[in-house]
Amino acid sequence: MATLTSLAERLLTPHGIDRYLELVDPLLVRSETRARVTRVEHQTRDTVTLTLTLSRAWRGFTAGQYVRVSVDIDGVRRTRCYSPAGSQHRDDRTIELTIKADPEGLVSRYLHRHARPDMVLGISQPDGDFRLPEPRPDTVLFISGGSGITPVLSMLRTLRDEEYAGRAVFLHYARTAADVLYRDTLTALAAESNAIDVAFRHTAEQGRFTSAHLDAVAPWWREAETYLCGPPGLMRAVRSAFADAGVGEHLHTEEFTPPALGTGDTGGTVRFTRSGGQMSNSGRPLLEQAEAAGLRPEHGCRMGICFSCTQVKTSGCVRNALTGELSAEQDEEIQLCISVPVGDVDINC
Ligand SMILES: Cc1cc2nc3c(=O)[nH]c(=O)nc-3n(C[C@H](O)[C@H](O)[C@H](O)COP(=O)(O)OP(=O)(O)OC[C@H]3O[C@@H](n4cnc5c(N)ncnc54)[C@H](O)[C@@H]3O)c2cc1C
């Protein structure tokens, strides 16, 4: 079979077999993973839930991980990270993404408005270290806010499929009752399992997170392995509750939004050698400086995890805005979103 395929590949040069398979069905291509939208649902006013069928190259994911989704918007390929919300044990090459439309965002608003059954998206293999440990902990607490529900719901659904016999509590925050994602799913999970309890809090009426909420739903929270994903305010408040209780090592987190990065030194010139642009170094990450110069480099998470914005720095020194590390090698790959120039820098962009 392998020989036949490579023979076909040679006969079909210069285009390769994928070029022809794509004409029959985009999901038949072998060199990359693709996804076809099979269902579109609007659970709340500002979210869209997409069921995707994946091409044969898909290798499966572990609950809590994310995928990079690519979509062409006005002729430009845009890539963003999304965390599947379903169980990792679902074995029908189908995943479910729930995407909140950022009022100022490009890709989330586009998918919210335009995603339709049969739309084909690019999709990466899964990535990320936000995962449940093996063996599963005896007590698990999940805390989510808004669209941050996706990776932790995936973990909970995975535990359900494993007939988890420990103790799990899922505490979900939304602004109002109308904003709660997956209410019926979570309620049904709690009803069908003695191990799972679920609680919802509506911040507009019931206030924001305090550790008293944890005392109320999971008095044992200080001993539990806890998985948290939500908006920055919730993440900050939960982190500080765990730090105050001296149990920060039990808290595992996933961030959807980039941290606010400070401005670095402003000396020097940034040259974008491929496009021919240049500007005085503003001290901001190179992705922002490129955008300020009118360029539109490929990017994804804007926080250094997805590597979509990797470009070659041909000369100069940059500082990693997250770690402070300097790197001054010639012709090295750097992530534009978290690299701040230190003096003159040339980027092949
Ligand atoms: C690991 C991971 C998993 C994720 N999973 C999910 C998920 O399951 N569901 C979900 O809804 N989201 C998820 N996200 C968030 C998602 O990847 C996108 O960030 C989100 O959908 C917004 O993308 P966008 O293209 O609509 O917005 P963008 O166009 O990227 O804009 C995002 C924000 O950045 C601002 N911005 C844009 N350009 C600039 C600029 N030049 N300078 C400064 N600010 C700018 C915008 O004003 C906007 O508020 C996840 C993120 C990560 C990192």
Bound molecules: flavin-adenine dinucleotide
For the largest beta-sheet, the strand count, sense and barrel status come to: 6 strands, antiparallel
- Strand percent estimate: 25-35%
Q: What is the percent of helical residues?
A: 10-25%
Second CATH tier, the architecture of the largest domain: 3-Layer(aba) Sandwich
Q: Can you give a write-up of this model?
A:
With 349 residues, the protein is an alpha/beta fold. It has 3 domains: 32-123, Elongation Factor Tu (Ef-tu), domain 3 (Beta Barrel), CATH 2.40.30; 139-254, 3-Layer(aba) Sandwich (Rossmann fold), CATH 3.40.50.80; 269-347, Ubiquitin-like (UB roll). The chain has 9 helices and 17 strands. It has a 6-stranded antiparallel sheet with strand order 4-3-6-1-2-5. Strands 12, 13, 14, 15, 16 and 17 form a 6-stranded mixed sheet that branches. 37% of the residues are buried. The protein binds flavin-adenine dinucleotide (FAD). Residues 66, 80-83, 98-100, 102, 104-109, 128, 147, 150, 254, 256, 288, 291, 301, 305 line the site of flavin-adenine dinucleotide.
How would you summarize this macromolecular structure in one to three sentences?
The protein is α/β, with parallel strands linked by helices. The protein has helices spanning 2-11, 17-24, 107-114, 149-161, 183-192, 203-206, 211-217, 232-244, 286-292, and strands spanning 34-41, 47-54, 67-73, 76-82, 94-100, 120-123, 139-145, 167-174, 196-202, 225-229, 251-254, 269-272, 277-280, 310-320, 326-327, 332-335, 339-347.
